[in-house]
Amino acid sequence: MNLVERITVVPDVCNGKPTIRGMRITVRTVLEYLAAGETAENILDAYPNLELADIQASLAYAALLADVRIDSLPLPMAA
């Protein structure tokens, strides 16, 4: 999947946070809905401008970030 077509970072949109296709819908918003147990269908109903591929791209983006070592994240570190 070509994330560049789906996930964009525009400094003037949502304070430069990753968004879906430059819209004011952040990747975080999509991921939080999924984490809360919402279905893709419910998310698409709530955000008619979204496409299923946008939700899939959000998950792929999160998977990429999960594989990056970032020591400054505010997460508890295992001993």
TrEMBL record:
<protein>
    <recommendedName>
        <fullName>DUF433 domain-containing protein</fullName>
    </recommendedName>
</protein>
<dbReference type="Pfam" id="PF04255">
    <property type="entry name" value="DUF433"/>
</dbReference>
<dbReference type="InterPro" id="IPR036388">
    <property type="entry name" value="WH-like_DNA-bd_sf"/>
</dbReference>
<dbReference type="InterPro" id="IPR009057">
    <property type="entry name" value="Homeodomain-like_sf"/>
</dbReference>
<dbReference type="InterPro" id="IPR007367">
    <property type="entry name" value="DUF433"/>
</dbReference>
